[in-house]
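Q: What changes when iron/sulfur cluster is included in the input?
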Amino acid sequence: MFQAQVDTDLCDGCQDCIDLCYFDAIALVRLPKQKRMKAAIDLDRCCGCNNCSPSCPQEGIIMVPIRELEEFLLKQQAGAITVTA
Ligand code: SF4
Ligand code: SF4
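A: The predicted holo structure follows.
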């Protein structure tokens, strides 16, 4: 499972990705020491559909693995977590 992340060095604030996200997970924010607004991902809303990333003209959105899920699965594989039906 993945979630979107914005590379703020590449993002130019064009807003293209905002309309492409059906989950309202992207907003423009003003970051410290940045003249332009930048896209930011609300990770509570992002489901990792990857609709935004290929359409960014700056290639400024990358999909990254969900660390918590990976850690959960690693612990489960190691026998530290038992899942019951
Ligand atoms: S489409 Fe890319 S460059 Fe445009 S606001 Fe979104 S992340 Fe930034
Ligand atoms: S991956 Fe999907 S849900 Fe997440 S920000 Fe991009 S378009 Fe929205």
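Observations recorded in class: Residues 67-77 form the longest helix (11 residues).
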